[in-house]
């Protein structure tokens, strides 16, 4: 397992996911970690009211990714990527394109009712991924 995709969203689970990777990667040399966050589609009406929203969100995401990269202590290369669109679909597409061996992401901890009504990004990734997925809780 040489290529890991770490999906971050700014939640408390990001720190646990970073610790998980640092622990696992300490035993592996020449690892590649791709840290990614996905900018969701923003409603065009909202963009008309607040035209700088997308740029502000992107700037915040860049800071989040840079902060995450600093906390990784792997023996290898670390890259960060900002993706746009449906979160699960973009993560899976990125994993496929880059030949990711393992996807690591946090669990938001939604209740069963919320998962049923809202859906869950992590559940969608688990269902649709052709590669192993670790959900850190």
Automatic annotation (TrEMBL):
- Pfam families documented for this protein: Usp (PF00582)
UspA domain location? 2-137
Q: Where are the transmembrane segments?
A: none
For this protein, the record's InterPro entries field holds: Rossmann-like_a/b/a_fold, Universal_stress_UspA, UspA
PANTHER family cross-referenced by the UniProt entry = STRESS RESPONSE PROTEIN NHAX, UNIVERSAL STRESS PROTEIN UP12
- Entry's family note: Belongs to the universal stress protein A family.
What is this protein's name?
Universal stress family protein
UniProt source species: Aneurinibacillus aneurinilyticus ATCC 12856
């Amino acid at each position: 397992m040489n290529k890991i995709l770490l999906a971050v969203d700014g939640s408390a689970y990001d720190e646990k996911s970073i610790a998980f990777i640092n622990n696992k990667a300490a035993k592996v040399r020449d690892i590649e970690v791709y840290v990614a966050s996905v900018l969701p589609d923003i409603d065009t009406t909202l963009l008309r009211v607040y035209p700088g929203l997308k740029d502000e969100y992107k700037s915040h995401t860049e800071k989040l990714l840079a902060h995450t990269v600093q906390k990784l202590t792997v023996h290898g290369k670390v890259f960060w990527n900002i993706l746009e669109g449906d979160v699960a679909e973009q993560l899976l597409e990125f994993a496929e394109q880059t030949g990711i061996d393992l996807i690591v992401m946090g669990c938001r901890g939604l209740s069963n009712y919320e998962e049923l009504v809202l859906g869950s990004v992590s559940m969608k990734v688990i269902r649709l991924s052709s590669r192993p997925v670790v959900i850190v809780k």
